[in-house]
Write a structure and sequence with these properties.
The chain has 107 residues and is mainly alpha-helical. It is built from 5 helices and no strands. The two termini are 16 Å apart.
Length: 107
């Protein structure tokens, strides 16, 4: 969304392994949108459909949930990807798990 407004980017990330990063300058993106007016509408449709519910759930959890509730949610989300009934190892380090439980979690 910061590509569409004058605000800063509201999140950050730290790579835990070698990572290739791509950047898109706001002015370049705006120029491209002016040349191709359907692009911003498609971007908004995709962002709204995929991320809106997840972000609202995260805000609700971080704002109103206790640490125990946040831990339960993280563990339940991790368990969703497993075959029913099979024990599962959660692929998170303690540091990653703690970051997801922090009141200012960024995922």
């Amino acid at each position: 969304m910061p590509l569409f407004d004058d605000g800063g980017y509201p999140a950050n990330a730290t790579a835990i392994e070698e990572t290739l990063r791509f950047s898109l300058h706001k002015d370049d993106f705006r120029r491209f949108c002016e040349q191709h007016p359907r692009v911003p509408l498609k971007v908004l449709a995709v962002v709204g459909a995929s991320d809106c519910g997840r972000w609202l759930q995260l805000i609700e959890t971080v704002t109103f949930g206790s640490v125990r509730q946040r831990l339960a949610r993280v563990l339940l989300e991790a368990a969703k990807t497993d075959v029913a009934g099979a024990p599962k190892e959660i692929p998170l380090t303690h540091e990653e798990l703690a970051a997801r439980l922090a009141p200012c979690a960024r995922w």
